[in-house]
From TrEMBL, chains A, B:
It is a lipid-anchor; GPI-anchor. Residues 585-648 form the Peptidase M24 C-terminal domain. Its EC number is 3.4.11.9. The lineage of its organism: Eukaryota, Metazoa, Chordata, Craniata, Vertebrata. The gene is XPNPEP2. Homotrimer. InterPro entries: Creatin/AminoP/Spt16_N, Creatinase/aminopeptidase-like, Creatinase_N, Pept_M24, Pept_M24B, Peptidase_M24_C, Peptidase_M24B_aminopep-P_CS, X-Pro_aminopeptidase_P. This is Xaa-Pro aminopeptidase 2. Residues 55-185 form the Creatinase N-terminal domain. It is an enzyme of class 3 (hydrolase). It is found in: Cell membrane.
Amino acid sequence: MARAHWGCCPWLVLLCACAWGHPKPADLGGQDVRNCSTNPPYLPVTVVNTTVSLTALRQQMQTQNLSAYIIPDTDAHMNEYIGQHDERRAWITGFTGSAGTAVVTMKKAAVWTDSRYWTQAERQMDCNWELHKEVGTTPIVTWLLTEIPAGGCVGFDPFLLSIDTWESYNLALQGSNRQLVSITTNLVDLVWGSERPPVPNQPIYALQEAFTGSTWQEKVSGVRSQMQKHQKAPTAVLLSALEETAWLFNLRASDIPYNPFFYSYTLLTDSSIRLFANKSRFSSETLSYLNSSCTGPMCVQIEDYSQVRDSIQAYALGDVRIWIGTSYTMYGIYEVIPKEKLVTDTYSPVMMTKAVKNSKEQALLKASHVRDAVAVIRYLVWLEKNVPKGTVDEFSGAELVDKFRGEEQFSSGPSFETISASGLNAALAHYSPTKELNRKLSSDEMYLLDSGGQYWDGTTDITRTVHWGTPSAFQKEAYTRVLIGNIDLSRLIFPAATSGRMVEAFARRALWDAGLNYGHGTGHGIGNFLCVHEWPVGFQSNNIAMAKGMFTSIEPGYYKDGEFGIRLEDVALVVEAKTKYPGSYLTFEVVSFVPYDRNLIDVSLLSPEHLQYLNRYYQTIREKVGPELQRRQLLEEFKWLQQHTEPLAARAPDTASWASVLVVSTLAILGWSV
Amino acid sequence: MARAHWGCCPWLVLLCACAWGHPKPADLGGQDVRNCSTNPPYLPVTVVNTTVSLTALRQQMQTQNLSAYIIPDTDAHMNEYIGQHDERRAWITGFTGSAGTAVVTMKKAAVWTDSRYWTQAERQMDCNWELHKEVGTTPIVTWLLTEIPAGGCVGFDPFLLSIDTWESYNLALQGSNRQLVSITTNLVDLVWGSERPPVPNQPIYALQEAFTGSTWQEKVSGVRSQMQKHQKAPTAVLLSALEETAWLFNLRASDIPYNPFFYSYTLLTDSSIRLFANKSRFSSETLSYLNSSCTGPMCVQIEDYSQVRDSIQAYALGDVRIWIGTSYTMYGIYEVIPKEKLVTDTYSPVMMTKAVKNSKEQALLKASHVRDAVAVIRYLVWLEKNVPKGTVDEFSGAELVDKFRGEEQFSSGPSFETISASGLNAALAHYSPTKELNRKLSSDEMYLLDSGGQYWDGTTDITRTVHWGTPSAFQKEAYTRVLIGNIDLSRLIFPAATSGRMVEAFARRALWDAGLNYGHGTGHGIGNFLCVHEWPVGFQSNNIAMAKGMFTSIEPGYYKDGEFGIRLEDVALVVEAKTKYPGSYLTFEVVSFVPYDRNLIDVSLLSPEHLQYLNRYYQTIREKVGPELQRRQLLEEFKWLQQHTEPLAARAPDTASWASVLVVSTLAILGWSV
């Protein structure tokens, strides 16, 4: 799980917020927040003065004859993490939370954000800003209708509204005598001026062939073949998501935190390949790798990133049909393509193809998980020795596990901000420690680590929860029920093309049985050195059906407010299942290789099938990770691994079912008195 | 499960067809079908000559200046079963299958139907008609575009197209220079003339208070209170589904096969109650029960059924907002209400309220299930004696169980056409025997009975599958896995407001595990002397979330083409679950009280939890049905019940898990050699 979002792209933020339930705001009651009702208002030192920038923004609005201007929290590609130069909402409001929309009128300014961020917003915003606690377009439009006069215009940057969001605003404003006005020059950027951080400009590089599943030429041919087979015969595919272009060309960079992407679009037509990016970022080797000096159908023409809208508009003048993935294409592109020339699907063929890994990609992803397990095991061994000394805190722990990952071969940094949470902090939905604010790790508390790495061969994501002292019976029960959920879903056999939504309850049943549950989703896709939350694979209602070759995380949890949090997350490959009777069935093969915490497992709650599964999994861990630890002379870690993967045995006295019944019967037959 | 449809209303037919997968056509290869390619064409005797009626229809079309006319298979209320006078498609084409749309142009006539009906259509239609094997509006519109000239008009009866279906035609025709024309006078009816069967005219009667959960006045007040609380403040609710009006006023009749309804609409406003029906069908007692002679807000004004469209149109001229359930309101009503005066939800507040039974309604439904169990048990006991004699066939069996139900108190006929299927016939998706075509019951084959009754206090639906001889190991395994599915879902504990879709896989897991599955849905709501397939409760994606007080069937199955079919269906009440830790959790309480077939259960596949559940269920059956059998002096049936509800015991030798492990350990401890 990631800190702020539940998918690779912010179009999923709401889903995430919903799935977690409405998380209670962290108890920051004692914190220093603004008070705008006193005269003069009370403003804590954390507040940003926005008077000057708001005045300048209103001047721009006046020039454009706008009554209001919408400032979303997105970028032009619906990225999960956005670059500093795209943090327009944060800059104009002072409020830096990852979710929230601002709207400015000539007289007022307001922010809408969810409960996770209310306190933070009250600490960061000055009294120019109203805080609204409902989210979605409806409350924003309701407010707009009372704040701006009939006939008023509501401006927005069309590259910051998805098609769906635009439609939602448009529908809500219909018949209200206020109209939406698309303005391609961002007004906040005009005000921000030279203070605005520069757009990243690091080199864009090609992955070595050893780390790619297919050449870019093979991928281009594959997509073109899908275009030909499509009944609406699209003449081009437009790729708006950065991961699409990165995947298609096997190119990477580091424009986005945690995601190895670069700002780009691709227009792949039946006769040309047009890559929109900053040409100066390509080395001559990379340009030659892309055949960028020729003009045939297998040559990549590089055009400037800023030209994409005009180029699409010009292309759309011809007898063409442009295929787009509507979930993540922005209105700024959509509005320049005539409707009859659009071929729409929720996800582009690139997104759909990328979701199913070929055998080489599977092998690469698995290999990265073996090395990732080494880093996590090194950290767990280190914690076991150092936590009792009282010298480890959440933040230094997170730094250490990041460092261990960084020492692994092919490492390219963490795949998201490490969640290192001790005790009650692990029950917070989106917690990450900071250098200033963190908690000490202790043998008296549970500790949750949710972290992952980017490696040239794959992206990883794993969560383990541990206790070094004596956990309570309830903690053990909750942990074991979470573990059962993980096992029940991991070993489930289900028909091919079943949607994840239909089976995710298997990860919850053992918790439900006791009146427990968790408020977030059960898993998400993952990429080969791409997104750690890679759509459209997963267990939510808008995920696509499961197919052989997909990878997904499986991550049930349990959270006790103010006390502790448990999550057990593994990445699993969807594989064919061998069933007694022939049929097309699937199951999961777990590729995360770190044992669970024996100290937290109540074996009496496990069925023989659970134990059998667990012991087989432990045997696999030994086989995969053991030799790697030995090869690297990590002998202490090897010993630890052997200890923690010892087969678990049934505990007869605790079982209340078959076991006791039959022992009793057996003894009875033998004439024993019981 | 019902024969033709999967819900109370045909808007669900497609769902049903999808859920079952595309059922193979019954093997009727040897049957006598038409051959239009010979000269003269070969026509079997079963064919209907439609030349005269088609000519007359085309004259009507010419009068209206139509290039094409659509003849759907629905009625004006989206009823699951339709009256004979509504069987327009069957009359004009000769093809009597329950699903299929006809379209007539000036030159051609065509029918679109699914694979279940292809052979039947070829036996019943003459060569005036083309048969098209794809279903949905898209293939129809594709055909229309080639068959009718640009500028052509496509006529339809707006009372026979749902809002969704109209939108789908409208969207597909957009930009094609062909337009849809709504014609309120049905052109087929004009041609049908005096031959058309009369509209039912039996008395409409009020249910005795003993059989109603609330008075109609209480229900009216409840709906008005929901109108007041609604944020869009509707001034009226329009009820289009016949079950809505029947439920609201506690009125019943017998216009529709298997459903105790009468043709009607209700417009319930904040100050009036307008019931559209045939006034002559109300006795003076019923009129006085409805306060129909006064004009206050709690008086029911009865207006003629045929006036509904004009009355709604007139009402919509005022400052009003009309709340409708869009899933089952027809375009003929929808088109006369200005969009800004519509308040739309998928289901009306009546549909939503009706879905949750109050405690009296729960008690009534349960009581009907006890008597229903008596009828089914009488039949099973009779079969056990008579099947070995070789004198029972599927049709006479169905007649007998219908007769036994008819002898129960408060009986009002079957709730759907009894599915009585022996051997391979039970594997057919929509099989019911006829007097002419049926199969003998035998001790060598499995027999599936899916049937239900209408009683004044409740509607029932139960499926049992039996074998009187020696079932094969595979039959026992499949039966037991279906039973495990039924148990696993029935005993599931899940959070309040979980959607059925999220949990229905628990009914499939035991089958999936072995590579088996079933192609239909897992359950549907059921009414109090209303629909046997009552929406919107159930396990499909368009069902609403589960809530305490709802009733649903639970009915996994397994079907082996050409060999046998298994389905085990019970009706269950959604009740609060007691969990170890406090929370809002639900589970099911099964209210069908007929034991499963011991002869088909492989106990070795059952876990201790399954056995415990089953034995507790059997104990409940004894407690509920036993006294009723004794009271009625049905002593043979009582004895049968006792035998068939004997507690089942674990069979140690077959268990491969805890059991054997522990017995072995125990014996080992005792020094036995094993």
